[in-house]
User: What shape does this take?
Amino acid sequence: MPAIRPLAHDRGALSGSVDSAAEQMVRLWARAEDVAQGQVSPSQLRALQAVGAHGLLNLNGLAAQLGAIPSSASRLCDRLVAAGLLDRRVSDHNRREVVLTLRPDGKRLLAEIERHRHATLTDVLGAMTQGGRTALLRGLEEFSRVAREIDKSSQHSA
Amino acid sequence: MPAIRPLAHDRGALSGSVDSAAEQMVRLWARAEDVAQGQVSPSQLRALQAVGAHGLLNLNGLAAQLGAIPSSASRLCDRLVAAGLLDRRVSDHNRREVVLTLRPDGKRLLAEIERHRHATLTDVLGAMTQGGRTALLRGLEEFSRVAREIDKSSQHSA
DNA sequence: TATTGTTATACTCTATAACTATA
DNA sequence: TATAGTTATAGAGTATAACAATA
Assistant: This one.
């Protein structure tokens, strides 16, 4: 705790501005997933995204990614398999384990969301000034780098 | 559709960079709500946030804010009232309507999340360079302004 | 008759606990 | 015995449909 923090007040005000401005970005980000509405539930989508991000997962791994327990993940997979979006088969190396992979329709769904998110973002960026775009990119890149570092060090202390 | 878009490729690449950088910000934003885990479910939290943002709401209004139907909102309110976070009373002006307001514990919960979000954001901003902070603020403010405009005009066409 | 909510009913999501199969 | 998953069972979230109360 430094004895003198002359910028503390300004920094608090700045984070308030960033906070409210970031809200719009968060909203836009989340709305891309609306294209999956009617096809899969939010939970099912998170499961597909977890499998998509990790390539191969077993059931405990999926549960860990979702912050859920294996039985919940198992039920989720039941429905995703029934919907033809996910493949669940016994591992070649350990017959206790299952291996979860995306089926083509599952991959298509994730790609569709990503495409939609990218298109919306491109629209907004295209309507911004060149200086605004440059500033946003610079600011976000430093932000995400610093946030990752802080995240890492706080996990060590937890 | 303009005939010539020389910047189309660059713009697409830029939105990809912004996309991945923004992901970290979205994650940080969402994590603030983890402080409510164990107290209320995500759905209940969204309901509290909707009431908090609008001050007064009737049940149809809440359902509209949640993108749900009145019966679902009614059940949500049952549990929030039982938990002492929400107040549901008959309107003075129209005895068909109910008026939903936050109880002190409900307000405290939302304030706690906001405080946590603000603190995390302040930590990250404090670890950034002055130039990075300025760029981020400028970029986000223009982004959110433009995104709101596009949102508004797309609602008109929908 | 139209509007505002609530209540049955049913399906999904989730957790706990008990179970099977494999190592 | 420990590990990986699955299957009862139960509570919460949600929608449809039927209902009561008010305007």
In short: The helical segments of chain B are 8-31, 42-54, 59-66, 70-82, 104-126, 130-157. The beta strands of chain B are 86-90, 98-102.
